[in-house]
Predict the structure.
Amino acid sequence: MDKSIRKSNIELLKIIAMVIICFSHVINPIVYSLGLGNDFSLNPINWIFSFIKNSGWLGDFIFITCSCYFLYEYRKISWKKMILYYLSTYFELIFFWIICTICGATITKELTIKTFTSFILTEHWFVLVYIGFLACVPLLNLIVDKLNRKQHFIINIITLVITTILQVLILFGVLPFEADYKFTAFIFLFFIISYGRKYGNYLFMKEHDTKTNLIVAILSIVGWYGFIALFNCIGINSPEMFSSSLNIVYFYSPIFYFLSISLFLLFKDLKVKDSKAINFISSLSLLFYVGHQNEFTKFFADQPLFDFASSHTSGPILGILFVAGLVRFIFGIVVATIAYFVIQKPISILLNRIINSKK
């Protein structure tokens, strides 16, 4: 996004989304490995674990919700932006593959192939889905421009229904790839946010209505845990059912949509002084996504953290996992910053020169 349209209050929420995604990725394998958070008992520690380790999807939706607010202004496909994002994240992986090789990390043939084909396949699907979403935004805005209020509202409901159907089909294995669902979820969020940009209403939430938006956020979290209690009461708490019940409760519920939108509206009204630091960290989001979650950052950051957590299971495990997530986040920001100056910025300069030479 252009620097001219960045708003630090919304960029701050995007950073929080990055933190949520990071904590989910780093805590999830540790929690499963240590056998924590795998029951629906009234143990509050387990409930906290169960929220954190599945909240990566919430982070994705918050990020897209914030992006949609700005993308409503886009009426032309930004080929430069799409190419820049693709090349930057692709060469980021290759760059750190080279670094790991130099540092003596164990690099298998399988890992090498995985690195060089990561964006031909779906290793980092979020980047591909986001780039594809950017390509669709001008068309989506063209549709939005031609809709009246009633038609737009109907589209909101239709896309919500389609997204929910896809969620169920993926849940039961009819569709193999969850990115299909994410793409339709992004489109649904775009229609909701564009509706809000035009009319000030986001379903039953409104701009500047702090009380209602806060209530929706709180009820979303309460309702989310209410589903946990419901599944516990009807006995769906066995290891065999654990994964499926989590899919129903956490991943494929409109609750995350409502929570994302309500948080977005709350932060939109926050008075945050324009900050270059906040805007810069937020601009690293895609580089961070790839940089904090790949085989090489797992080697350098995750294994030491896992070993530390495993050897301190009798201690304050929640605090230990919080430190682990924080370390991983800082590590990801450092990696993304290096990738920005070494890879993305030079690619951006090169693309600008190519574009200017053709004018």
